[in-house]
Amino acid sequence: MIRRIALGTLIAAAGFTAWLTLSPPAQAQAPQPPRKKRLLAIGQVKGFQHDALSDALGYMWKMGKESGQWDTYIRTDTQLLTKKKLTGNAKNIDYFDAVYFYTTGELDLDDEQKAALISFVKEEGKGFIGGHTAIDTNYQWPEYGEMVGGYFDRHPWNTFMAPIIVEDRDHPIMRHFPKEFTVLDEIYQARNQDRKNVRVLARLDETKLDMKNPNIRRTDSDFAVAWVKTYGKGRVFYSTFGHHDKSLDRPDIQKMFFEATRWAMKLVDGDATPRPRPAN
Fold first, then answer.
1. Which run of H or of E encompasses 271?
2. Model pTM?
3. How many helices (H) and strands (E) does the chain have?
4. Sheet holding 224-231, edge to edge
5. pLDDT by residue (tens digit) across 74-111?
6. How far does Cα 261 stand from its chain's mean position?
């Protein structure tokens, strides 16, 4: 009797094992795609009215949408630049991975909002992308100027065919440009912009400029047109390009802002170490 029970147990066990082998294997959990990044694009105007504002904001939306890299939330106010809980389905700054400015003048920001933006980049390691006008804003907020890398100080040549030298073609933001090119644009002269604090990616070729222009303020003849820097744990990019649609419509300028946004969002790496002006 004991032997019969043992045999039955072995048969049952064998049957159970056979059933397991005939059962379809459990499906492996498919890896979840990474969350799409989120960009907050701010276009508040408290100073000069740039006709290219809609183009600048629109291109940031379009590039994110078409590439699938990020979703863009466009605002012409500063409501979302806060860590306070907002109502009505509004998202505060914690929802985003980077902020883009095409702004002028002293923006509507209280002390909490200013602290929120600085913390967003400096402590939380997120990104800031500055279009053309982003250094023509927040003059009364020195910490902002420190973060972005400088302030607007006239445009000596107004809109002209600007001769550009690309200094860092190894950087993903500039890799698609030739060593030298020209662009019809209004080039800002920056004050408080120092190569000790930023990595210049491109500059004007001063040998092709009218250096007798009375509006020139820089004494070093060094006119950066695009730079990157780290700010605490975060990444910052700025370029003077984009005064009007003639430059923003250029595919190479669009790609520059596309790659700059990816870099600021830490989707791609690129050196932001400050360095002296190269010899060539």
1. none
2. 0.88
3. 6, 11
4. 70-75, 37-42, 98-101, 127-130, 234-239, 224-231, 199-204, 159-166, 180-186
5. 999 999 999 999 999 999 999 999 999 999 999 999 99
6. 3
pLDDT band at 27 (very low <50, low <70, confident <90, very high): low
DSSP for 105-129, please give it.
BS-S--HHHHHHHHHHHHTT--EEE
Rg of the chain over Cα atoms, rounded to whole angstroms, equals 26
| 106: its two tokens | 């002293």
Strands 159-166 and 180-186, by their bridges, are: antiparallel
Which DSSP category does 27 fall into? P
Q: Which helix (H) or strand (E) holds 94?
A: none
| Nearest residue to 131 (alpha-carbon basis) of 109, 156, 98 | 98
Question: CA 244, 249, 250 angle in degrees (round to 5)?
Answer: 115
Q: How many C-beta atoms lie closer than 10 Å to residue 270's C-beta?
A: 20
What span, in angstroms and rounded, lies between the C-alpha atoms of 265 and 256? Answer: 14
For residue range 175-225, what is the model confidence (pLDDT) as tens digits? 999 999 999 999 999 998 999 999 999 999 999 999 899 898 888 989 999
Cα torsion 247, 252, 258, 262: sign: negative
**Angle at alpha carbon of residue 151, lines to 191 and 177, rounded to 5°:** 90
- State how far Cα 14 lies from the chain centre: 62
Per-residue pLDDT at 19 exceeds 80: no
Catalogue the long-range contacts made by 21-27 (C-beta closer than 8 Å, 24 or more residues apart): none
Record the tokens describing residue 217, joined without a space.
């303020």
Mean pLDDT of the chain: 90
Band (280; pLDDT cuts 50, 70, 90): confident
